[in-house]
Specification:
By secondary structure, this protein is mainly alpha-helical. The protein has one domain. The protein contains 4 helices and no strands.
Amino acid sequence: MLLGSGYVATARVGAGFGAVHAADPTRLFNELYDPDGSHPSAAGTFLAAACMYTAMTGGSPTAIKYVLTSNGVEAVACCRAVGCLSCKVV
């Protein structure tokens, strides 16, 4: 189901955010958003990108090398874990 193979890939970004919410609905989930509560933080952007990576390549986001220089390091680890489970191509 790779792009260009005649299939349409859907990046299940919402499922990734939902999996983080299910794992920790307060602290980790809140780290996915900027303080305005609407826009994604660096960790939220990473989660969205991991889901898109999985949808476009079929690969696992666990191998993505990423270093977050501010808060949210644990959220990025959680994103990598849920990315494998939640961002599968449908």
